[in-house]
C-alpha cells in the first residue's frame, strides 16, 4: 500500500505545481469527560499517507530541494505509550510511511516556514480546529511580511478540496478491493439480520447481530450509527434508538454499513417482520423496488449523476399517482416537488473513505457531473408515509391505510467502463425472496 500512497501524493503534487499542501490529522473526539472515542484518522490525511495517529501534520512541498513529503508526528514516549497506545514516532515515519523528513509535532512552527517560503501558494483546508487554522494564517502572514526580502513565498491560500477530492472520487483498484470487502461483510450482516428478525424481537437485538458480524469479519465496526427501524420508526430517516419491540404485520427497515480498512459500505433493506407483506406494504414496496432498479440502470459512464435521482423520482411519483396518494399531472407534480412529503431525500451520494464521500455532484447549474468508471455511489430511493405530514393544498389527504409505512432500498454501485456493478447485490430485495414463513 505504501507505493499507492506515494503515487497518490505524486498525483497531487502534479496538480499543485509550485504550491505547498498542508494536511492536519483528525483531532481526538471526546466521548464524555476524559474518555475519548476510538481514533479515526481524517480521510484526506489517510488517503495520502495511510498514517492513522492524531497530532500529526503532513506537508507536500514539491518546491523544496530535498523534502517533498514531510511528516510531523508525536514522538516516541514510552510512558505515554503505556497509557494511550503505540506511536509510530519520528524514525518510523520515514522508514514505514516514506517521509523524506520527519519531525516531532512540537517542532512544526519552527520547521514549517522552510517548506512554505518557496511555494507560490498554500493548499490548506480550513478545518474545524480554529486554533490550527490560526496557526497556518500566522505563518502565511509572516511570510507575506518577508516576501519582498525573498521575492518568493505564498500569496494565496487555496482549499485542498478541489485538487484532492476529484482524485478521491475515482477509486483505484486497491480502494475497490477494500470497498468490496466492506460490502461483502455488510451483505452477510444484512442476510443474517433477515434470518433472525421476527415478531417479538427487539430492534437492538438485530443491531447487535449486525454489528457482531462487522467486527467478527475484521471490519472496524459500523460505518455510521446503524438504523434498525420497525413499523412507523422507518419514517424517521435517521432513527437510531433501536429500542422497540417488533410486531407482526410491520416492516423492518435496516440501514447499516460496515467500515473496513477505512472504507465504507451503506446498505438498506426493508422487509416484513412476520414474513408477509400486507397489501399496502407490498404496493409501496413494489414502487420503491422499481424506482431503485430503474435508477441503478441509469448508472452508466457518460450518463449524468442527476439522471439517477430524476429517474427514481419519476418512478416513485408515477407509483404514488397510481395508488391515488398523489393527484395531478406527473410532470407538474415533479416540477413543483409535491412528491416531497413522501420522498424528501436525495437518491444517491458518493461512497468511499467517507460514507457521504467527497466530490461534487455538479460543476455549476448548467454543468452536470458525468458518471465515470471508478466512481461509487449509493442508489437509495424510498417512500415514507409520515404521520401528520404537511401536504400541498391541492393534494388529497393521505388514506390512513398507508400511514406509518416507511421503505428504503439502498445498494452501493460502482461505475464500470461498460455500465455498473452492484457491490451489495448479495442481499435479496425481490418480494418472493424476502417473504418467508416467520
Ligand atoms: N446511512 C446513511 C445514508 O444512507 O446516507
Ligand atoms: Mn446512503
Ligand atoms: Mn444508508
From TrEMBL:
InterPro entries the record matches: Aminopep_P_N, Creatin/AminoP/Spt16_N, Creatinase/aminopeptidase-like, Pept_M24, Peptidase_M24B_aminopep-P_CS, X-Pro_dipept-like
PROSITE patterns: PROLINE_PEPTIDASE
Annotated GO CC locations: cytosol
Pfam families found in the cross-reference section: AMP_N (PF05195), Peptidase_M24 (PF00557)
Annotated keywords: Hydrolase, Manganese, Metal-binding
Domain Aminopeptidase P N-terminal: 1-133
EC numbers for this chain: 3.4.11.9
Any GO BP: proteolysis
Catalytic activity: Release of any N-terminal amino acid, including proline, that is linked to proline, even from a dipeptide or tripeptide
Position of the signal peptide: none
GO molecular function: manganese ion binding; metalloaminopeptidase activity
Named cofactor requirement(s): Mn(2+)
Protein family: Belongs to the peptidase M24B family.
Sequence intervals crossing the membrane: none
Ranges in a coiled coil: none
Name under which the protein is recorded: Xaa-Pro aminopeptidase
Source organism (scientific name): Anabaenopsis circularis NIES-21
PANTHER family, per database record: XAA-PRO AMINOPEPTIDASE 3
Enzyme class: hydrolase
Matches recorded under CDD domains: Prolidase (cd01087)
Amino acid at each position: 500500500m505504501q507505493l499507492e500512497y506515494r503515487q497518490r501524493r505524486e498525483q497531487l503534487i502534479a496538480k499543485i505545481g509550485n504550491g505547498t499542501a498542508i494536511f492536519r490529522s483528525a483531532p481526538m473526539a471526546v466521548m464524555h469527560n476524559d474518555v475519548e472515542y476510538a481514533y479515526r484518522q481524517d480521510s484526506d490525511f489517510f488517503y495520502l499517507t495511510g498514517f492513522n495517529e492524531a497530532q500529526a501534520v503532513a506537508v507536500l512541498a514539491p518546491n523544496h530541494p530535498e523534502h517533498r513529503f514531510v511528516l510531523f508526528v508525536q514522538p516516541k514516549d514510552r510512558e505515554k505509550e503505556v497509557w494511550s497506545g503505540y506511536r509510530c514516532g519520528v524514525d518510523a515515519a520515514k522508514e514505514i510511511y516514506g517521509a523524506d523528513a520527519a519531525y516531532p509535532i512540537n517542532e512544526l512552527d519552527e520547521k514549517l516556514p522552510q517548506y512554505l517560503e518557496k511555494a507560490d501558494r498554500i493548499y490548506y483546508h480550513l478545518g474545524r480546529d480554529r486554533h490550527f487554522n490560526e496557526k497556518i494564517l500566522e505563518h502565511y502572514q509572516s511570510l507575506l511580511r518577508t516576501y519582498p526580502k525573498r521575492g518568493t513565498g505564498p500569496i494565496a491560500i487555496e482549499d485542498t478540496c478541489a485538487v484532492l477530492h476529484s482524485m478521491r472520487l475515482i477509486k483505484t483498484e486497491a480502494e475497490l478491493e477494500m470497498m468490496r470487502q466492506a460490502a461483502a461483510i455488510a451483505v452477510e450482516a444484512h442476510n443474517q439480520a433477515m434470518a433472525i428478525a421476527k415478531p417479538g424481537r427487539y430492534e437492538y437485538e438485530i443491531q447487535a447481530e449486525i454489528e457482531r458480524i462487522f467486527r467478527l469479519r475484521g471490519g472496524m465496526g459500523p460505518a455510521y450509527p446503524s438504523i434498525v427501524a420497525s413499523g412507523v420508526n422507518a419514517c424517521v430517516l435517521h432513527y437510531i434508538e433501536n429500542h422497540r419491540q417488533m410486531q407482526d404485520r410491520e416492516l423492518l427497515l435496516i440501514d447499516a454499513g460496515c467500515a473496513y480498512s477505512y472504507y465504507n459500505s451503506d446498505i438498506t433493506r426493508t422487509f416484513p417482520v412476520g414474513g408477509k407483506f400486507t397489501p399496502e406494504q407490498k404496493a409501496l414496496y413494489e414502487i420503491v423496488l422499481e424506482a431503485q432498479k430503474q435508477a441503478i440502470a441509469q448508472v452508466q459512464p457518460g450518463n449524468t449523476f442527476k439522471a439517477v435521482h430524476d429517474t427514481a423520482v419519476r418512478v416513485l411519483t408515477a407509483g404514488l399517482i397510481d395508488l391515488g396518494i398523489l393527484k395531478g399531472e406527473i410532470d407538474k407534480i415533479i416540477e413543483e416537488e409535491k412528491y416531497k412529503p413522501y420522498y424528501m431525500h436525495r437518491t444517491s451520494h458518493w461512497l468511499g473513505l467517507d460514507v457521504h464521500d467527497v466530490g461534487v455532484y455538479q460543476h455549476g447549474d448548467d454543468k452536470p457531473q458525468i458518471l465515470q468508471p471508478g466512481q461509487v455511489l449509493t442508489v437509495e430511493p424510498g417512500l415514507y408515509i409520515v404521520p401528520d405530514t404537511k401536504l400541498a393544498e391541492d393534494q388529497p389527504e393521505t388514506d390512513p391505510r398507508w400511514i406509518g409505512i416507511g421503505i428504503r432500498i439502498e445498494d452501493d454501485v460502482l461505475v464500470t467502463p461498460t455500465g455498473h456493478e452492484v457491490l451489495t447485490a448479495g442481499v435479496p430485495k425481490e418480494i418472493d425472496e424476502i417473504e418467508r414463513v416467520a
